[in-house]
Design brief:
- The chain crosses the membrane at residues 7-28.
- It comes from Prevotella lacticifex.
- InterPro entries: Phytase-like_dom.
- Keywords: Membrane, Transmembrane, Transmembrane helix.
- This is Phytase-like domain-containing protein.
- It is built from two helices and 23 strands.
- By secondary structure, it is mainly beta.
- The protein has a single domain (14-347), classed as Tachylectin-2, Chain A (5 Propeller).
- The strands form five sheets. Strands 1, 16, 17, 18, 19 and 20 form a six-stranded mixed β-sheet that branches. Strands 2, 3, 21, 22 and 23 form a five-stranded antiparallel β-sheet that branches. Strands 4-5-6-7 form a four-stranded antiparallel β-sheet, with no helix packed on it.
- It starts with 16 loop residues before the first helix and ends with a strand.
- Mean pLDDT is 90; it is low at 25-34.
Length: 348
């Protein structure tokens, strides 16, 4: 989901100008992070382990947020590892079709130490609300998911040529505007892609979303049901102020997916807005999901950690075998100087 026009807009009114002045002053004095950054128990190797329902969050390490000040202000909605420390990072607004080429440095603890931009790869004229990106390393094909048109496009990463374009049939037929393709991932273990609608299709229950499995040539192969947690907020004020849904999928390469659930509540004056992210592990076709980790960020006069995480990618593995997962947030172009281009890692 994007947040302009039909998207989230943090409201700015005359009544809040003084408060915003205080917020801008506080911006430079606010703590960089207010989230725990260590697991409570010794680690486990999640990838390849049994898919069991339950909670393993005490074993998952969540890093502090990293403020990426060396990259252009962005609407970063997805990322994927290309090779080494190079990542394709897409923006859902403000750029042509294509992706940035970022270098993301990760230390031996799995923490981000540097992010910088190496340029933009232009793949076409119009940005159709790019929300997700995936990469097939063997074929050197990059895939981009477009929410405006409910389409997935396949490109040759070597020459930039578009090879294929496919509209997800059920998303076109029953999808709700600005609530369809939000996620895309390639699973090398099954040689397939997965995508998902952000929110329920017309006629589906309020917590149900549809995960679609596709071949590398974008043929639809199977549909799976995923049931989200109940929203925390009972406020019924519409998508311009409250969004609740699946923001991203990530294949772990063992037949399971990480599912990033996101709830974003925009307070009437902006101050007091919050985002809650939860990550679950899910095996397509199963009715169970395994809670991995979660966190809450917010926007207050002394707290500028608000981060609308939309992208998730596999990073390197640590020496002990644990997998680094990198997340990126959409700052709406560093909205009014109040939001930041946050990235973070979790270690699984």
């Amino acid at each position: 989901m994007t947040f302009r026009n039909k998207e989230f807009i943090l409201p700015i009114s005359a009544a809040t100008i003084i408060i915003i002045g205080v917020m801008i002053f506080s911006y430079f004095h606010a703590p960089a992070e207010n989230q725990p950054d260590t697991a409570k128990h010794p680690y486990i190797l999640l990838t390849g382990s049994s898919m069991l329902a339950g909670d393993v969050s005490d074993y998952i390490w969540v890093s502090a947020q990293y403020n990426a000040t060396k990259v252009p202000p962005g609407n970063y909605s997805g990322l994927v590892r290309l090779v080494g420390n190079r990542y394709a990072v897409i923006s859902d607004f403000g750029t042509p079709k294509g992706y940035y080429n970022f270098t993301i440095e990760i230390n031996k603890k799995g923490e981000i130490t540097d992010i910088r931009n190496n340029g933009f790869r232009n793949l076409g004229k119009d940005n159709e609300d790019e929300e997700a990106v995936a990469f097939d390393h063997n074929r050197h094909h990059i895939y981009i998911g477009n929410e405006d048109t409910s389409t997935i496009e396949e490109f040759d990463a070597l020459n930039g040529q578009r090879l294929n374009r496919h509209a997800i049939s059920e998303f076109v037929r029953r999808g709700i505007s600005n609530r369809t393709i939000e996620s895309l991932t390639y699973d090398p273990s099954a040689d397939c892609l997965y995508t998902c609608d952000e929110g329920p299709l017309r006629g589906d229950p309020g917590q149900m979303v549809t995960i679609v499995k596709l071949s590398p040539s974008l043929d639809e192969q199977a549909y799976y049901t995923y049931v989200m947690d109940d929203p925390l907020s009972e406020v019924k004020i519409g998508d311009n102020h409250h969004a609740f849904g699946v923001a991203e999928l990530l294949a772990l390469g063992d037949g399971t997916l990480l599912v990033l659930e996101r709830e974003f509540l925009v307070a009437p004056a902006g101050i007091g807005s919050w985002v809650v992210n939860k990550i679950f592990r899910f095996k397509p076709g199963s009715q169970d999901k395994q809670f991995i980790t979660g966190w809450r960020t917010q926007l207050n006069v002394d707290d500028f950690t608000l981060a609308n995480y939309e992208g998730m990618a596999l990073g390197p593995k640590l020496d002990d075998g644990r997998q680094v997962v990198i997340l990126c947030a959409d700052s709406q172009n560093r909205y009014h100087g109040l939001l930041r281009d946050w990235f973070r890692t979790i270690i699984i």
